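Incident review: delayed structure delivery

Summary: a single-chain prediction request sat in the queue longer than the usual turnaround. Root cause was a stuck worker, restarted by the on-call engineer. No data loss occurred. The affected request and its eventual output are reproduced below so the record is complete for anyone auditing the incident later.

Affected input:
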Amino acid sequence: MNGMDYDVIVLGGGVTGCAAARELARYQLKCCLMEREEDVCSGTSKANSAIVHAGYDAVPGSRKARFNVEGNAMMGPLSEELDFEFQRNGSMVLCFSKDEEGGLQTLYERGQANGVPDLRILTGDEAREREPNLSDQVTAALLAPSGGIVCPFGLTIALAENACENGVEFLLNTEVQAVEPADGGYRVRTSRGDYTARFVVNAAGVYADVFHNMVCEDKIHITARKGDYCLLDKEAGGHVSHTIFQLPGKYGKGVLVSPTVHGNLLLGPTAVDVEDKEGTATTAAELADVTAKTAMSVKNIPYNKVITSFSGLRAHEDGDDFIIGESAEGFFDAAGIESPGLSSAPAIGAYLAEQIAAKAGAEKKPDFQPVRKGIPRVSQMDPEARAALIRQRPEYGTIICRCENISEGEIVDAIRRRPGAVSLDGVKRRVRQGMGRCQAGFCMPRTMEILSRELGIPMEEIRKNGPGSEILVKEGGEA
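Output delivered after worker restart:
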């Protein structure tokens, strides 16, 4: 490695960074991934629409179009290989007047050019036959059977666990402060010291422009685009079966109504450009906008079943396309990864790994293990399999989260895996403890006790996520 600490350093533990790390693990390269938070999947990848887009929206010939369609095709086989939840439920794009139907035709033609399979334009009545709760105002819809829904946490964590199993090091709680050219590569300055590598993969989300501009002559600019969402209880999960879009506009694909792979109903997002790259607070006005716009698409949405609201940031680059590939000698960008970034991540990761391996002259590992098995879900097991698991591991017989039927065994495994959960949010993203109707109102104390026991730290040090989010406060105000 010519005196370098690593062959490759990946900046960012979101879905794109973890996809790149997993694909790099196929090669005889020493790699690490750096993430400033306490866990992977802590930024854009944790708060998005969870949609695997078909690929009809992106301009033909763009990187968004290429990687969206390639990533969509990869998602099914990848979900079987890495054991995460994915459903090809199909999507519909709606229009509400004859004047808008030309927009559907444009999307249809784009999709054809991009290689999206089985697209079809439906009349309003044909659309309502498939989705009885569609608005009576719908005059036509574009049907894309290849569209899907995925668990973004499950996908990202599966990629990370498989990368870790195949030798990638994960440096969490490691904030990258600067990237500098060094002899034969780069020096990455962090909150935990300096590291060197021949190659850097910049998958830093809304901060990707900061690191790009440190080493590249051509400068880029990323705007944080905030989107608010509402999540409804599982009682509302069957209100639609497809992902329902409106015709896209200037700020993206518009407000959607979609089932989730876990049986909930998701509404959103809004699209508001913000200066603060940490600005994820929801607002009453934006949530009201979600309600008003979704009511145009789907009637009788039970808004009284909302169990939580949240927002996420998309990394919108001024050029309105992904920036993928080598932007300076040995410095590889995955920048401007907004929608359809989740759909595109597997393909982006494979492309970057192939480019770096070719440049490094790295051979593939003969012992790469592509299969990863997820944590057992007792709620999804038949009685015989569940009883057998409980006989082997009794902690799987103790239910901690009643809303989602999550056992102590699942929480323990979420903590013990690598990279494992070290916070309440880390547990929640892995096994859905606290994601149900009561939003952790009953199960949080018991989950804190399990974290304390497994991590060997006092209860006062248990956090919701990163530093400063401790749950318990000592008398006098100190955590």
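Verification: The first strand starts at residue 6 and ends at 11.
Action items: add queue-age alerting; document worker restart procedure.
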